[in-house]
Amino acid sequence: MKKFKRTLVTTALPYANGPVHIGHLAGVYVPADIYVRYLRLKGEDVLHIGGSDEHGVPITLKARKEGVSPQDVVDKYHTLIKESFEKFGISFDIYSRTSNPTHHKTAADFFKKLYEKGVFVEKESDQYYDEEVGQFLADRYITGTCPHCSNPSAYGDQCESCGTSLNATDLINPRSMISGSTPVLRKTKHWYLPLDRYQEFLEKWILEDHKEWKPNVYGQCKSWLDLGLQPRAVSRDLDWGVPVPVEGAEGKVLYVWFDAPIGYISATRELTPEWEKYWKDPETRLIHFIGKDNIVFHCIVFPTMLKAEGSFILPDNVPANEFLNLEGDKISTSRNWAVWLHEYLVDFEGKQDVLRYVLTANAPETKDNDFTWRDFQARNNNELVAILGNFVNRAVVLTHKYFDGKVPAKGKTEPFDTETLDAIPDIVERVSTHLEQFKFREALREAMNLSRLGNKYLADTEPWKLIKTDPERVKTILNVSLQITANLAVVMEPFLPFTAQKMRDMLNMSEPRWQDAGNTELLNASHNINEARLLFEKIEDAKIQEQLDRLAQTKVNNELETKDVEPSKEDITFEEFSKMDVRVGTILEAEKVPKTKKLLKLKIDTGIDHRTVVSGIAEYFEPEKVIGQQVCILVNLAPRKIRGIESQGMILMAEDADGRLEFVTPASKIKPGSKIS
């Protein structure tokens, strides 16, 4: 493998139209941060580049929905995302944004260079146009019926019901999301990146030169190449984004897929005047951390752009992850089916490393995986508390208890001591190998094996029993235990940075270096260590139930939103309506009708008289709680007997989509008998 002088790590730019959720973290940001922290521990020259993607239709849709400007939307969510990442410990060297002037200039200059080199194909095409608002419609501004699954709410680029990619012209009965009208096709001019001209180059570069890429990445690239690449538009008709910097392109911006990856370049440029050595020196290793939905852009499209420009290096690896599901269902921002990072940081204050641990241990590296709150709880209680936290706590507490917080000198070693110490560098080597291969789940498992090694060692040697009969032997046991703990404080830094810092504080250690890991003499004899601190605490069932209840309510809300409203009944005449006499009444008495589940017998003051009404509301209201309730009552409904009771009218109720009943009542208390008109 080639040795590089430096490494440039980029992470997919999250859309600034909403917060970051655990799917983003598991797919991109946690693995990237682990890798960057590992390289920094090794003393390597590495930059970690991130930022918000602030252009594109999702931003404009959000702005239109909230009644604000696109800039308002991106300002709000860029700040929220950036702060969430910082609190979670994602260690960017810069977290930038694509709406800033540096990015606009960098993206425009990139386009102009390709334009001047004659790279683009310019052509006219038919695109949907909304005549009512006078603008061309981006794919996401068009909905219609999916030709594959008949979903009536498919978008112009994809059906979220069956997952099929679409062209807007594929939709049956298309309509504009802006005006609701039926759009028409009009000619419009755009510039296209001719991916087909780079097919041969990409086949050799990916399929022959990068067979070491992850199977899911390599396989998806091969599928695209086998189908044959087609030109892809780099501009679109929109008023939010980087303006296309050529004559005759008024009202057009760079397509977001074209300008977003250039955001990596502009952010590096913003960070350092030496940005070119990270992007143009072949001694730099470029690595993109992304989710599987971005593979084609980072392995085929962006490399084609860089190759066409001519002066940039190409990515050496793109270790994309698959998707993380939530409680057996696909994470969806539109359905609010997610665990949002900013909410987690409030609900589980100080537990950043618990989530980092669970997302790494359950990482969707080769296939989609599922996050469940019960698994989150179990991994915290049974692994972090019972294994890692338990071992570190025992080693430090026993040292203070028996030797006043000073590292005891190692005396005569027995074969079990030597066997245990010899296992440390072997474990560290395996952690390192897995990290180099982007196998973060396996790397974490090996790192935890250090804790398991320590727990087994303490359990088998039982220093708490030996202290009375052989204190010299206990000195050796605790020295060995503390050397394991010190190694944990180094090895856990990439995975659990907050916890690793706590361990180093306890052990009174200096800043870690990866080359220290595996050393069995990290702590000298007589070195003072600080008092023990609990690294983790048990998470109780009630805390987990809160999260499950929140998701259950989300599911109910989603079902209610998608439930069809009952259509209206046949028209009636005004004369028919005017025959109804609806008054305000007050419930004076209420009791359940015997041998029924649904019926209440009510006595109501109608202002005209006091009358009895039988109403089917007993499943939703207790009799004693409705006394005094004002209602609307149809007083001239012909009496009818219900369960032997003459009912003299009908109270009006509203029924929600889930069948729940609510009283139709005046906003404030008014005199019984007041007419409803």
TrEMBL record:
Question: Which EC main class describes this enzyme?
Answer: ligase
UniProt cross-references to PROSITE patterns, sorted A to Z: AA_TRNA_LIGASE_I, TRBD
Cite the EC number: 6.1.1.10
Q: Tell me where in this chain the TRNA-binding domain is found.
A: 576-677
One GO cellular component this record assigns the protein to is:
cytosol
Matching Pfam families: Anticodon_3, tRNA-synt_1g, tRNA_bind
What organism does the UniProt record list as the source?
Thermophagus xiamenensis
Q: What is this protein called?
A: Methionine--tRNA ligase
